[in-house]
């Protein structure tokens, strides 16, 4: 695989970023791809491990050493075919996946993993440019009709697989456009939305029918969808945000991250805003929560012209470097600094917010430092100025009102739709579930995996056999 001595001869080199001072002036992507030669060199560092761990680290089990070898040899078309055999949407993961594959790479033992995500992105971007990505309509139709509710990565992956297996697939989406959190959560500077549009066009050419502004359980009764299809996949995501019910929570200027981020994405794509604008311009912003959502709030606030951005995390600051011998090949806990952090945000760890203060609108936060058991440290109280507070503390479960209650599906103790990862079947006849709606808040790559596997389970249910991959 690759060049046997590549990892000895060639240093790891990854994609760079355009300078922060330039990129914060716009909402476009700012990652600088490697040259073709540079990508092939990086792919050649894949070193013919006895047992490669990367493809188990990857939730869709991408056949990483195989396509690294193909890229090294310059066979981009076969690399694209191989990559698409396990991942419907590598252009999404090649941009925003946290790359657990690289954590699992044997070269990561020396902190120099193969730049797997960069190679993946180069393969698929080149495949689109070269016309290798084409619609693959089914040769035979089965006459079965499947509804997919939700057009995030789980719903899209399931719909594409099912259409290619010959089923008539209808995707129902409550918003005006497809993509779920890819479209309305993740900012354009991480993932430009034209990437979703061209996949939707490919899927339409494969026969998938998209029904927008269709909120199942609200504007269309769930029973109508259940009665009108041979199978239904629930892929509605995990949309109920975790709240912070402390004094001052109802002050103006305290918002959930997902009230703030989608507005900016809609501004970029010139969609109408449903609510009053929430803007960080000229404000001191505090983001509570340290994950991807918090990071996206930082990057968006900086671009809107915030005076300052501070991110608070209740957990203690993780170590800068993991202990490889106890963590490898698994995903390690360590300090992660995103491109948004580099654009100018203060980060503080081990901080609990006790109250929001202000009169009509929020003016600040009362905070206290906590130890690693979240016990308050006496005398460590402090106040922080804020005109805008964004709550980015994750999501507790799918929304139960409407769709799930009307169908009467059983939920698990965490409030997610109950279904296993073999049959993906819920407690209701011919209803399946995949993605964040089933597994809880997760990652795009896991949603793609679940969408693909649920599609196979539905195909098996409808036809008694399936040639779709697991
Ligand atoms: C701000 C933010 C940033 C993130 N960044 C990253 C990242 O960088 N990398 C990463 O891997 N993951 C990231 N994630 C997580 C990732 O986006 C999700 O795990 C993934 O999108 C889940 O996919 P899904 O298809 O299950 O659900 P979603 O993407 O949530 O899609 C669900 C869709 O269902 C629709 N829907 C819901 N109910 C109904 C209904 N009743 N009728 C019709 N339609 C309905 C919704 O409108 C939505 O379009 C991020 C999440 C957030 C919130
Ligand atoms: S999908 Fe994610 S984990 Fe899999 S190869 Fe791509 S970057 Fe790595």
UniProtKB/TrEMBL annotation:
**UniProt keyword terms in alphabetical order:** Amino-acid biosynthesis, Glutamate biosynthesis, Oxidoreductase
Keyword Transport among UniProt keywords: no
The protein in question is named Glutamate synthase small subunit
Q: What GO molecular-function term can you cite, just one?
A: oxidoreductase activity, acting on the CH-NH2 group of donors, NAD or NADP as acceptor
Organism of origin: Rhodoblastus acidophilus
GO terms in the biological process aspect are: glutamate biosynthetic process
The pathway this protein participates in, as annotated, is:
Amino-acid biosynthesis
Record domain Dihydroprymidine dehydrogenase: where? 24-130
């Amino acid at each position: 695989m690759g060049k046997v001595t590549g990892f000895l001869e060639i240093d790891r080199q990854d994609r760079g970023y355009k300078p922060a001072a330039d990129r914060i002036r716009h909402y476009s992507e700012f990652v600088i791809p490697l040259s073709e030669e540079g990508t092939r060199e990086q792919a050649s560092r894949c070193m013919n491990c006895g047992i490669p761990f990367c493809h188990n680290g990857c939730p869709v089990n991408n056949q990483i050493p195989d396509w690294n070898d193909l890229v090294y040899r310059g066979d981009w078309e076969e690399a694209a075919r191989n990559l698409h055999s396990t991942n419907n949407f590598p252009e999404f993961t090649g941009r925003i996946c946290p790359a657990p594959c690289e954590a699992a790479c044997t070269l990561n033992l020396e902190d120099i993993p193969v730049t797997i995500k960069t190679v993946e992105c180069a393969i698929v971007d080149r495949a689109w440019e070269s016309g290798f990505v084409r619609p693959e309509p089914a040769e035979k139709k089965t006459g079965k009709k499947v509804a997919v509710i939700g057009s995030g990565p789980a719903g899209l992956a399931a719909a594409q697989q099912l259409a290619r297996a010959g089923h008539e697939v209808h995707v129902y989406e409550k918003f005006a456009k497809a993509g779920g959190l890819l479209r309305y959560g993740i900012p354009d500077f991480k993932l430009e939305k034209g990437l979703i549009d061209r996949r939707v066009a490919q899927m339409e050419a494969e026969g998938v029918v998209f029904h927008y502004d269709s909120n199942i359980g609200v504007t269309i009764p769930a029973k109508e969808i259940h009665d009108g299809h041979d199978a239904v996949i629930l892929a509605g995501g995990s949309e109920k945000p975790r709240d912070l019910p402390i004094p001052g929570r109802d002050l103006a200027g305290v918002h959930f991250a997902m009230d703030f981020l989608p507005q900016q994405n809609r501004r970029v794509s010139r969609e109408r805003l449903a609510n009053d604008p929430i803007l960080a311009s000229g404000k001191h912003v505090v983001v509570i929560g340290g994950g991807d959502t918090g990071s996206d709030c930082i990057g968006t606030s900086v671009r809107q012209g915030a005076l300052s951005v501070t991110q608070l995390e209740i957990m203690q600051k993780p170590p800068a470097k993991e202990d490889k011998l106890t963590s490898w090949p698994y995903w390690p806990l360590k300090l992660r600094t995103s491109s948004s952090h580099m654009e100018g945000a203060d980060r503080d760890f081990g901080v609990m917010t006790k109250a929001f203060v202000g009169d009509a609108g929020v003016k600040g936060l009362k905070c206290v430092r906590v130890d690693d058991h979240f016990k308050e440290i006496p005398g460590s109280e402090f106040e922080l100025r804020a005109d805008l507070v964004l709550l980015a503390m994750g999501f507790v479960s799918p929304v139960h009102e409407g769709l799930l209650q009307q169908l009467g599906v059983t939920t698990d103790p965490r409030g997610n739709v109950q279904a296993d990862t073999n049959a993906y079947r819920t407690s209701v006849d011919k209803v399946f579930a995949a993605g964040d709606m089933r597994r809880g808040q997760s990652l795009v790559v896991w949603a793609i995996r679940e969408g693909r596997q649920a599609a196979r389970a539905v195909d098996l249910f409808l036809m008694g056999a399936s040639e779709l991959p697991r």
